[in-house]
Specification:
By secondary structure, this protein is of the alpha/beta class. Helices cover about 45% and strands about 20% of the residues. It contains 19 helices and 21 strands. A nine-stranded mixed β-sheet has the order 12-13-10-8-7-6-5-2-14. A three-stranded antiparallel β-sheet has the order 15-16-17, with helices on both faces. Strand 12 and strand 13 form a beta hairpin. It is globular, with a radius of gyration of 21 Å.
């Protein structure tokens, strides 16, 4: 059965499990404070804020999310708690003189918030952490097809948006369980541009399953979607396969064969089709899944893999570069923890230099397409060959070099066209076996004593 789940990438699923095996523990506040404060002074830091609320739950959503109705009182309480969490971090990190360079908000559905919510959050970030006055968010076409709402968000500091279009085919959108249609996506793009948004990315999805009495998404349908996406006034197009996590609504339907996913052969064809179509339309590859007109990209993955990243909100993950943590995935427990003036961190661990090197290699080579030796030395204070000596993961690089998936030169290592399919398998096996597994386990219990990943 063809399923892009955590076991679905063969060898690379095994590599991800072995390379990133870890234990997260619940520790006392003193230990948490020490770990969170392990960011080097005057470091450039990103902030990720999680908004877990959605008006509906998509079939294959792998994120920490909670459905809400028209009564959004819980959202107001959540924003109050988020501002208090920002204050806690400000007090803890005030002597480090950190430089906040990016603030991203994901979910869930951040675009359900009002402009005043963003203004309050930005004011708190400025007061307690010295951040700027703008924010990048993930947005839903259903929300952003409302012109007044878009102007409200942009006027209150939203200047970058990653819009979850997923498809311009209404039939495909229904298969994903999405609430919006093609017309709302187009209207959202127009509204964002009219309101003066600085940068706009659109997310597109492929490898979309269908009922077993229908044909799953075809290469031709994906080609049509890419052609249409490239016609609009957007700065970047990111393309993601439909990953099937054990805790998504659609998982059992796929497992039981009531819903089927396109084959691995089609997966490969869709990857290379994307690599051919988008550059031909003026979108240059900036990551293995991201294509940009001017080189700008909606950045989150580098900070998640390499740090430093401060994670705020229910279910948010943070990584100082040495200390990795996840906040409780229970909204009520998150709010109560903040009320008690405690960081809402449910599990954490220290990351040794060996794993930090492996994470860096994966981020630069298998996501960003090139690892530069000079950048590596700046990061780890040693030449690449010396720093990686004795690390078993390097054997896989030698294998990939032998089969032509990567190429070495005097400046570093780069991904070849032949290696693009392998890079996707490495990338998505990591996503499914590490961050998705973390979310899965921490959604089961608010404050577990120990969680083993994967």
């Amino acid at each position: 059965m063809n399923i892009l789940d955590r076991e679905g990438f063969g060898l690379w699923s095994i590599v991800a499990k072995n390379a990133f095996k870890s234990i997260f523990k619940r520790v006392n506040y003193e230990e948490l404070s020490k770990g969170v404060s392990s960011i080097p002074p005057e470091e450039e830091v990103a902030i990720y804020i999680h908004i877990p609320f959605c008006r509906g739950i998509c079939l294959y959503c792998p994120y920490v999310r909670y459905p809400i109705g028209k009564d959004d009182k819980i959202v107001s309480k959540y924003i109050d708690s988020l501002i208090d969490e920002i204050r806690l971090y400000g007090e803890l990190l005030k002597d480090l003189n950190l430089k906040i360079v990016d603030v991203h908000m994901g979910g869930g559905t951040p675009s359900i918030l009002h402009g005043e919510d963003f203004r309050r959050i930005l004011d708190a970030l400025s007061e307690y952490l010295g951040a700027g006055n703008s924010i990048a968010i993930e947005g839903n076409p259903e929300d952003l097809s409302n012109e007044d709402h878009v102007y409200d968000l942009v006027d209150n500091g939203v200047d970058e948006v990653s819009l979850g279009v997923q498809s311009f085919n209404d039939k495909v959108l229904k298969r994903l369980g999405r609430r919006h249609d093609k017309d709302k996506s187009i209207k959202a793009i127009e509204n964002l541009r009219d309101a003066g948004i600085k940068y706009l990315n659109i997310d597109m999805m492929y490898m979309i399953p269908s009922r077993n009495d229908e044909t799953p998404q075809t290469v031709e349908e994906w080609s049509e979607d890419l052609d249409e996406a490239s016609r609009y006034d957007v700065d970047e197009i990111t393309c993601y396969p439909t990953l099937i996590t054990n805790y998504s609504i659609g998982y059992n339907l796929v497992r039981k064969g009531r819903i089927i996913q396109p084959s691995k052969k089609v997966f490969k064809e869709m990857i290379y089709l994307t690599e051919d179509i988008l550059p031909s339309k003026g979108f240059k590859p900036v990551e293995i899944y991201g294509y940009s007109k001017e080189g700008w990209k909606y950045v989150t993955v580098n900070y998640e893999m390499e740090g430093p990243l401060i994670g705020l909100g229910c279910g948010a993950m943070g990584f100082t570069g040495r200390f990795e943590y996840i906040n409780t995935c229970s909204v009520s427990d998150y709010i109560n923890s903040i009320k008690e003036n405690r960081l809402p961190i449910a599990g954490s661990r220290y990351v040794d230099v060996k794993e930090r090197i492996i994470r860096y290699i994966n981020s630069r080579l298998f996501v960003c397409r090139k690892l530069n030796y000079k950048d590596f030395k700046d990061k780890f204070k040693e030449d690449f060959d010396k720093a990686t000596k004795g690390i078993g993961f390097i054997k896989f690089l030698k294998f990939l070099r032998f089969i032509g998936s990567i190429k070495y030169d005097s400046s570093g290592i780069r991904l070849t066209r032949r290696g693009l399919f392998t890079a996707h398998q490495i990338c998505w096996s990591f996503v499914l076996n590490v961050p998705c597994r973390m979310s899965e386990e921490y959604m089961k219990e608010a404050w577990p004593d120990k969680v083993v990943i994967p």
